[in-house]
Fold:
Amino acid sequence: MSWQAALLLKQQISLLDYLQGQGWKPARQSTGGRLMGLCPLHCDHHPSFLVDPNRNLFYCYGCGRGGDVIRLAELYHGVRFADALAVLRHWSGLGSLLPDVANFYQMQLHRHGEAVAYLLQRGLHQAEVIEELRIGYAPGRCLRAWLTSLGYSLETLQQAGLVNPEGHDSYSHRIVFPLDGNLYGRSTGAATPHRFLPGSKGGLYAWEKVRECPEIILVEGMFDLAVLWQAGYRNVTCSLGSHLNAPQFRQLCADNGKRRTVYLALDSDANGSGQTAARRLSQRLRAQGITTRRVELPNGHDPNSFFVGGGNAHEFQCLLERACL
Ligand SMILES: [Zn+2]
Structure:
């Protein structure tokens, strides 16, 4: 991409829109229409991040970093200039597209018995939870035609990763969860279990809803989160994998990180790899002053299989109370 194209992209993308798309919120107004908020680039406890929407620039009084939207993307995602451009181009192209995709897949869910059967098999039966998570179903072979009828070009759909180079829907026979700037698809069959669109998986799921909670339960998978919601636990967030990316780790540390207890309810693998991952994460969070508790699920279980296997809210509560430091 040429410098001219980079310049154009910089003018097209509002820094404020991009920040808000990543879950950033201004804490207060400053002079000249400028905004102050917590810095998304370091573990900030008092708003020290200044955004000037008119000049499309930022500066942090805490970590001393500043610049334009491309610089922000470089620092935020920890990538080089060329990759930051790719991330931004991808993000700007997804603006209206992802909500259209999510709506379409949501409409498909109840038209396909196999999708509802899969949800039941994973212990998900509450209509309100399914609705609130905007769970959908990608049957395959129909998204491309639908989006084309809405006016999206094939090129746009391929760039977003929704249609593969052969021209077929990328998501097929998958339960779909819309994320912030991405789309998670869980295979109901033998295909690769997990699929995301190219680009970042984004921050922690529904972080805005839990960030004020003094106790937060962190899980790896969306089906873990869904059954916990059903069981009445709303202080749950999900990292979509056992590895936290840099923005997710910063979210756990930011704001009132030091007043927060994080319950790590990660998968308990028979070979112990999940437990090792939880111990490492626990150490990294403690180094930031955060209290952590490791929830010990029965061997070979994750929160989803715990509930599917007959576990109930009371038994899960006992696990939380027994969780070790
Ligand atoms: Zn900073």
Summary: The first strand starts at residue 26 and ends at 29. The mean pLDDT is 92. The chain has three domains: 3-93, 95-195, 207-322.
